[in-house]
Amino acid sequence: MLHSHLTTLNAVSLVLDTFKAAGVPHEALLAGSGICSADLSRADTRITTNQEMRVCANAVALRRDIGLELGQRMHVSSYGMLGYALLTSATFGDALRLALRYPALLGTLFELSLVEDGQRIWFTAGDYREPPAMAIFNVELCLVSLKVICDDLLGQTLPLLGARFEHPAPDYQARYAERFDCPLQFEASTNAFAFDRRWLDQPLPLADTITHRAMSDRCRKQNLEFTGRQAWLGRIRLLLAAQLSMAPGIDGLAEQMNCSPRTLRRHLNDLGCSYQELLDELRFEQAKQLLGEGQLPIYRIAEQLGFSETASFRHAFVRWSGVAPSQFRP
Question: Residue 41 domain-assigned?
Answer without folding.
Answer: yes
